[in-house]
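pipeline stage [seq->struct] | target=Hemerythrin | organism=Pollutimonas nitritireducens | residues=137
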Amino acid sequence: MDIDRFKHQHVEILDGIAKLRSFSHAGVKEHAHEIAHAIIALSTVVKLHLAIEDRILYPALQSGSNPQLSEMGKSYQEGMKGIASGYIAFSRQWSSAATIAAKAEQFRSEANTVLKTLFSRMQKENSEFYPAIESMA
């Protein structure tokens, strides 16, 4: 199974998280517009990635002949539900520069939690899930 597009999207997602981290460290209030734009851009990639995983990757693994990959796919899909809903709620709440500037510390706190969770998931997929797919498919 060719998973290059999924890997490429992971790079884009991780780059987006790094960009948000950089803007936040430089000053949330001072960079609220850049942060809002970065959240919107990141959300586009995250939503596309989730949709493609749900429509292509997970069904392919579950209908495949490898029971270990099928179970792994189910587990990863189930685990992503909470992460996805948390990220989507975060991105909706924080897509406005005015809101980010007005509630900078709340943004920083929520961003740390949500983005750390998303980052960790991308790292786990890169180090465990995708190599398993490539070696067993």
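stage status: PASS
auto-comment: The chain has five helices and no strands. The two ends are 6 Å apart (CA to CA).
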